[in-house]
Each structure stands twice: as C-alpha cells, then as structure tokens.
Amino acid sequence: ARAGGIVIAAGVVSRSLERIKLAGDKITVKGYAEESVISDAGTWRATVTVRASDLQSGYRALEADTAKVKALLESVAGASAAVSVSPVATRPQYEIGPGGVQTGRLAGHELDRSFELSSSDVALIARVASQASTLISEGVNVNSWPPQYFYKDLNSVKVRLIGAATRDAQQRAEQFAAGSGVTVGPLRAASQGVFQITRPNSTETADYGSYDTATVEKVVKAVVTVEYSVARE
Prior knowledge:
The protein is of the alpha+beta class. 28% of the residues lie in helices and 44% in strands.
C-alpha cells in the first residue's frame, strides 16, 4: 500500500539537481520526484550450527535444534507458514597446534542448516526476528539475521516517478526560460538516473542506486535529466 503521494522536490533538492544549462538551441535540466511506500513483503533468515566429535552425534544434535526452530516458527507464524529449510552442510574441523597452525588431525565436525521465512505479513516477520533470540536460552547456537523488508510493486512506483520527475524537469525549464528570453520547445532527449530506495528522512545515495531493506517504511527517489529545444525570443 502507498504511504503517501508523489512529492515533487522544492527546497529539499540538492544544488546538484538545481543546475540548469542553456547552450545554443537547447536547455538541459534535472527533475526530481519521490514517493513513500510501505513494505508489503518480508524475509527472515537464520543459521543453526553445531559442533561434534563425529558426524552421527552432530546430525542428532542438529536435528534436535531444527525441531526447536520449527517449534518456535510454528508458535509465532503458524503451522502453515512458508518456511524453507536447507540441507545440512558439514565441514571437518582440524586440530590447531602451537602458533595457530593446523596439525592435520581431525578434531571433529561442524554442521549447519539455514532457515528462511517469507511472508506478506511484515509484522509477523518482525515478531519472528524479535523472538528468535529465545532459542539461545534453549541451547541452540543460532545466528538470526536482521529481517529484510521489500515493496513488491516497485516497478509501478518507478514508472510514476519517471513521469513525475519529467514533469518537474519541464517546470524547471519553463521557469528558467521565463527569465532568460527563450521559449521551451519539444523534448529532445532524456536519461534516467538510478533509483534510491531509502528509509524516511535519509540522505543516503549511491552511484549504482540503493535499496534499504531494514525498514518497513521506505522512500523511493528518482532523478531524470531532460533536454529541451529552445527558441530565443
């Protein structure tokens, strides 16, 4: 769901977006627009690790921990929750001698398994993430990653923003032309900058674009560079 309408930049636009060039028979301007959205999908991931002297006891311990993770997820998310469980990964652990050098003698095994829960209920994802730490008190060696939140219809937002940013660019061109003795003509060329998807009130930008997944509320920002023909009065 949308958290707010498209906001056309006014005083908040940085100076780099305010640059307007007039050369020959063309004018080049940058347009800006942003839209607030509320995430409608989320993902929680965790990895459980056990260490044992032999694989058989390691598998038994990991299965016991797996049952505890599944019990937690069922209690919080329900039995029908879409939980993905990875196959078991095993790694030999070698004895470490003086100076931190491996001796080559097998000391045991490390086994781990990953869990992933995805849901359109972002509040549920937050609850699971907050309660995952209770597994530690049950003796489970779990690494629970911060939940990630996404907005599924991002392409529609991008299309709206490109249109809004282009209109903003035209307004800028016309305002500049009004005091420069020229008339703005047809659009000659346009290029789209990268999208910045950030938390609210963030000034974060990246040359390759950014996508903040840590917050449920997000702001999608777009910049376009547009070139118009001009005629001198």
